[in-house]
Design goal:
The structure is a single chain. The protein starts with a strand and ends in a 10-residue tail after the last helix. With 263 residues, it is an alpha/beta fold. The chain has two domains: 147 residues, Rossmann fold, CATH 3.40.50.1000; 96 residues, 2-Layer Sandwich (Hypothetical Protein, Haloacid Dehalogenase-like Hydrolase, Chain: A, domain 2). One of its GO terms (cellular component) is cytosol. GO terms for molecular function: magnesium ion binding; phosphatase activity. Keywords: Hydrolase. Pfam families: Hydrolase_3 (PF08282). This is Hydrolase Cof.
Amino acid sequence: MGRKIVFFDIDGTLVNHNKEILESTKKAVRELQRQGVYTAIATGRTPILFENIRKELNIESYVALNGQYAVFEGQVIYESPIHTEDLAQICTTMKENGDAYVFVNHEDFKSSETNNAFIQESFGRTKIHYPDVDDRFYEHSPVYQAIVFCEDEQRQKYIQNFPQFTFLPWHSYAADFIPVGSSKAIGIAKMLEHGNFEHGNSYAFGDNNNDLEMLTLVGTGVAMGNALPETKAVADHITTSCEEDGIYHGLVDLGLIQPILQK
């Protein structure tokens, strides 16, 4: 049969809208691990913003930054920094437009300006502290992902004018951007290969537009009940929401764990 592996998105999947891990999720993941199923995280977050979740759930391996950085049991197995020239080009335009931006890598994230209302609003919703300022961060450090903060109309112009990037909105005023062709699926494929996992033994849970490729790639893709319509459309299975024990019910439905919660 071979080992099975389950990848979990974080926001709206492992954690609910209050950024809390449900007790049912903790019990389900522990039971999954007890059954010998390998568990991993696949997220748009930088590793420094989910270390506490990894420790609480005893998960060592992860795909971070929307597939740009992958770690298997403490070893970096894949990394893909954005080309400096591409960053310089879009940063010049964002600055000319008066739009704030944030650079992100595996150990840090820096903003282009202080006290930006869009950064405060979007980061505050996810309970992330406001980053320190360094608008030239990309010139001396690798950047795996960046975030632009603007209205949707302005975002559409970036999408049109910078086809070398894929833009992934996660808030009304915020969108991650990574090189076109990149996705969580790239990092997951690297991990499946590195860990010798068979495709049919791979599973993933997600809810957002940055989970589409991931749910399509794995053997069985599971959309949360709170997932976007387009995410549900590509999933093999739809579970209940992140507020309604969705991880637990999904794992039970797939036969990966037995029912362990009292009704």
